[in-house]
Amino acid sequence: MIVLTYFCSMEELLEKIGSYKKEIGEFTGSDKNAAEEFRIKYLGSKGIVKNVMGEMRNIPAENRKEFGQILNDFKLFAENKYEELKQQAIGNTSDLSLPGDPLPLGSRHPISIVRNKMISIFQRLGFAVAEGPEIEDDWHNFTALNLPEDHPARDMQDTFYIASAGAPEWLLRTHTSNVQVREMEKGKLPIRIICPGKVYRNETISARAHCFFHQVEGLYVAENVSFADLKQTMYFFVTEMFGPEVKIRFRPSYFPFTEPSAEMDISCLICGGEGCAVCKHTGWVEILGCGMVHPKVLENCGIDSNKYSGFAFGMGIERITMLKYQVKDLRLFSENDLRFLKQFTSVV
Ligand code: 2NL
């Protein structure tokens, strides 16, 4: 008696599925509303497919597998129809002749533009790009570079140290020379590298100073490297960077890591050397520091200073960018003001 009841309901169910399938097959509609109406009626949480699936409860165990297949086919049939209706709706509502949605074009940050240009200039001279850590130890940032214990740059006032219980072990690098020290320590010569990257100094933020900025340092160590090589390399760099008219001059200077040391000026780009506010009426602007690598620095890094010599230089990317694009305030580089950044769209 019980078995008979089940048989009846199974047959009934098969019949029901058959008529629903017919109904679905005949369903027509070509817009979004029709597709949605279909979804709610057949595939919604109170829809027909759910309802029919619920009948599974009443199916005797021995028929479940076979019936499960039938129900799944039914569900797939309804889902496929829904996909078809959606596609039809899209086809009928989108006008393919309309212009596409505009994709706003970004621009490179001016610091990136200038850094990339510097890299490509030095790469043409055979310099490779080297990178290293921004969190550094005292040896790679100061000691190996011949900075004496009592040098003011090591002061808490100037350098960010990372707090620790005893003597501070870690600091934020104050220049990218640490990368060059690490490269020299590897002992593979000759070395011809440039090191672009972020550096940190404990400065009060103003139009002319910031607590972090970007630097490119360069190093060439081989046999018989001379000051003439340094001058020619720097000259090539500035003519490529600023144009063939630019003049250079070297002034004697002092850095603990180079001997002799020099500061290099270029003729003022604004007034062409006549004298103006930018060059403070001297006709010249300072752009970098350089010199022959101090023999002590070579020895500290395990290089024989009788056999090898080298030159090194360092410059701030912000400074070069300010000169090239006449930016008056250093803070503009890190404030993310789109009115400033958008001005570089066409330079990318
Ligand atoms: C400046 C001056 C300079 C260097 C950086 C250097 C690195 C090593 C050895 C020797 Cl590993 N020197 N770097 C040399 C001279 C000047 O930077 O005004 N930078 C913004």
What is the topology?
Layout: H1 2-26, H2 32-43, H3 48-54, H4 64-93, H5 110-124, E1 128-129, E2 135-137, H6 138-141, E3 161-162, E4 170-172, H7 177-185, E5 191-200, E6 212-222, H8 227-242, E7 248-255, E8 258-267, E9 284-293, H9 295-300, E10 309-316, H10 317-325, H11 338-341
Residues 177, 180-181, 215, 217, 219, 255, 257-258, 289-291, 293, 297, 312-316 line the site of 2-{3-[(4-chloropyridin-2-yl)amino]phenoxy}-N-methylacetamide.
- The SS-based structural class is alpha+beta
* Fraction in beta strands: 15-25%
Q: What's the overall geometry?
A: elongated
Topology order in helix (H) and strand (E) letters? HHHHHEEHEEHEEHEEEHEHH
What ligand molecules are bound, each kind once?
2-{3-[(4-chloropyridin-2-yl)amino]phenoxy}-N-methylacetamide
The share of residues in helices is 25-40%
Question: Poorly predicted ranges (pLDDT <50, ≥5 residues)?
Answer: 1-8
Distance between the termini: 84 Å
